[in-house]
Amino acid sequence: MNEHLQTLTEIRSLMERSSKFLSLSGLSGVSAGIVALIGAAVVYMRVRTDWLSVLPYEKLANYGLAQYEQVHLFLVQTAMLVLLAALGLGILFTVRKARKQGQPVWNMASRRLIWAMAVPLLAGGGVCLALLQYRLLFLTLPVTLIFYGLALLNGSKYTVRDVEYLAYCEIALGLLALFITGWSLLFWTVGFGVLHILYGMAMYWKYDRNPTHQPAA
């Protein structure tokens, strides 16, 4: 009887692992957090108003069109560089971990994960561009946190369960930042920088350092 139960457990584990992408590296989260901290520091030095704040509504109302367009272009360029750097490092560490595990990186599980996250991210990107177009810069940073959290939550079904907890934290920070707009850069820095580093370190310590510890499905 015990042998049958063990066999069923192993079959269930194999089925779950085939449907979930479990090669995410904790170092991907750490590297993304470091890149976000660098990006936040660059933005702060360029558009700072008071300590760790960025263009609240009252300050933004005094900006002329030409000045706002300069800030708009700078933020979009910086965001793209941060995104590309974080994605590049994330892919590098994830591919390296997958090879060590002898697992394929591009399979049905990874495709489902990417698609699940892509829809909220693309929708959030469209909303952010609209907010920038209508000079609602003070809402852009909170919205990025919220949609990123929704993307993580949607994608958590196809990877380790720990991602879900990070998603809730990102959404909560974004919602809070909507009502404290003068500190939006600080919330963004905590969400994309500090939380990513803490999450990545926890994942690395829990899974990467101990290959025999299988992620919970």
For the structure shown, list the relevant keywords.
transmembrane helix; transmembrane; membrane; 217 residues; mainly alpha; 8 helices
What can you see in these coordinates?
By secondary structure, the chain is mainly α. It has one domain. The protein has helices at 2-19, 26-47, 57-60, 65-101, 108-133, 137-155, 162-179, 184-208. Helix 5 (108-133) runs antiparallel to helix 6 and helix 6 runs antiparallel to helix 7. Keywords: Membrane, Transmembrane, Transmembrane helix. The chain crosses the membrane at residues 21-45, 71-93, 113-132, 138-156, 186-205.
The domain tally reads 1
Mean pLDDT: 79
Order of helices and strands: HHHHHHHH
Taken as a percent bin, the fraction of beta residues is: under 5%
Backbone shape: elongated
Number of helices: 8
Rg: 20 Å
What are the segments in which pLDDT stays under 50 over at least 5 consecutive residues?
A: 10-17
**How many strand elements?**
0
Helix content bin: over 70%
**Distance between the ends:** 25 Å
Q: Structural class of the helix and strand makeup?
A: mainly alpha
The largest sheet is: none
Summarize it.
The protein is mainly alpha-helical. 78% of the residues lie in helices and 0% in strands. The chain crosses the membrane at residues 21-45, 71-93, 113-132, 138-156, 186-205.
Produce the secondary structure layout:
Blueprint: H1 2-19, H2 26-47, H3 57-60, H4 65-101, H5 108-133, H6 137-155, H7 162-179, H8 184-208
Helix pairs in contact: 2-4, 2-8, 5-6, 6-7, 6-8, 7-8
